[in-house]
């Protein structure tokens, strides 16, 4: 079992390809297929005290039960053991979590753990609380990722956080309960569980994939960008192999937790078109339209969203520099939108670029522009709305 750094800036797995960023995607770092691991079945020992796996005692209704038992033969890779059994997860602070919010003083203490448990059991909406220690978390992680040997080889039980898993009397109260524990001392984050099975992927949309000619018509024009800009020639980006946001092992517990729960599937770009705009100050804006195979466009955004939610501000190597990813606001247009900020540092020089993604069916428009050159802050919003109009019109023609 390979040992990993658990610092916030922990190294990327050696077998994982370097992160490659382009104007349209944060490209992939993935493991390969291989033999399955054979996890041992964790025993769910009933206990009223935090610190041992299994039941952490009843909530306010007085019920008493052990954590659900499971059989690894009935737990296929990719399936979340807790899905359908609980509604909410409360992850406790790990040594690798950034020292902010509930983790300002570092890893959760015994006193904090007990106080969190007591508060959960005293919460009227809570039906039952289960405690998952690192040993049980590791066994479940191994079963869920049995088809990802590189991921298993790069992780250790010590890198996984402890957590409380909560069954609510009414799942509709989940936002209220989660909000009550977000930022509490010793709490790193909360997470809503899906109803059942593995993370779902969006269905293949009915909207037709753009042809090369329609993709060209969907790209922004100089009239969209405005006065003072010139437009370069329209270029064909061509088909691309499967690509995805960074999805390797970072050594950061929060990041790896988010990536492990992200939906997976083939992401293949079939074709695309691109145009670059420049003003007299030398500032550039790039507009791209790409057509994906199947539900690849929706997967691309779902995986990027998982990366941004769990790996925000985590530095990764890129082309001789380091890069940080952050979520930024994006207008609500098309089927879905997503904003991503990329901050790079190379030899002491920092650059900040924003990419706004707009998806309509299997087609994705991307507007990439510098965020540190004094552009009107409404520019990205305006161009994203125009990109959605072009993309929708091209799909109807």
Please summarize what this structure is:
The protein is α+β, with helices and mostly antiparallel strands.
Keyword list:
single chain, alpha+beta, 9-stranded antiparallel β-sheet, 9 helices
Care to describe what's here?
With 397 residues, this protein is of the alpha+beta class. The protein contains nine helices and 14 strands. The N terminus is likely disordered.
Q: Residue share in helices?
A: 10-25%
DSSP strand content? 15-25%
State the major sheet.
9 strands, antiparallel
Structural class: alpha+beta
Number of helices: 9
Overall, the morphology is: elongated
Show the helix and strand layout:
Elements: E1 54-58, E2 88-92, H1 110-122, E3 126-132, H2 134-144, H3 149-154, E4 163-168, H4 174-181, E5 187-192, H5 212-218, H6 222-225, E6 229-231, E7 235-236, H7 253-260, E8 269-279, E9 284-292, H8 296-310, E10 316-318, E11 321-328, E12 336-346, E13 349-360, E14 363-370, H9 379-396
Antiparallel strand pairs: 1-3, 2-4, 2-5, 3-4, 6-8, 7-8, 8-9, 9-14, 10-11, 11-12, 12-13, 13-14
Helix pairs in contact: 5-9, 7-8
